[in-house]
Write a structure and sequence with these properties.
Layout (H helix, E strand, L loop, with lengths): L17 E5 L6 E5 L5 E2 L4 H10 L8 H21 L1
Antiparallel strand pairs: 1-2, 2-3
The protein binds zinc ion.
Length: about 80
């Protein structure tokens, strides 16, 4: 689901909102939020989506971006619950 391209760049669209810096481990990246400069030492797309969806409530992130990722996060939670 979170495919990494062969040239080693993250493909998940969530990376659009973060600056990716490759780590020593191939296919792994640290992430820097373009909006608030929060640094994630290991930028897992799940975590980054939650950051965009949840950590901006009442803050200045574009509503369109926030609601898009809120939807993604909620959908993922729902599909996890179905698996249990
Ligand atoms: Zn941020």
């Amino acid at each position: 689901m979170f495919a990494i391209s062969k040239i080693g760049r993250p493909l998940d669209p969530v990376w659009e909102h973060f600056v990716a810096t490759p780590l020593k481990l191939p296919g792994h990246f640290s992430a820097l939020c373009k909006y608030c400069n929060t640094q994630f030492r290991h930028g897992h797309p799940n975590k980054l989506e939650i950051h965009l969806a949840k950590e901006y409530e009442g803050k200045s992130l574009d509503d369109e971006i926030r609601s898009k990722y809120l939807e993604i996060v909620i959908q993922r939670q729902l599909s996890k619950e179905k698996l249990v």
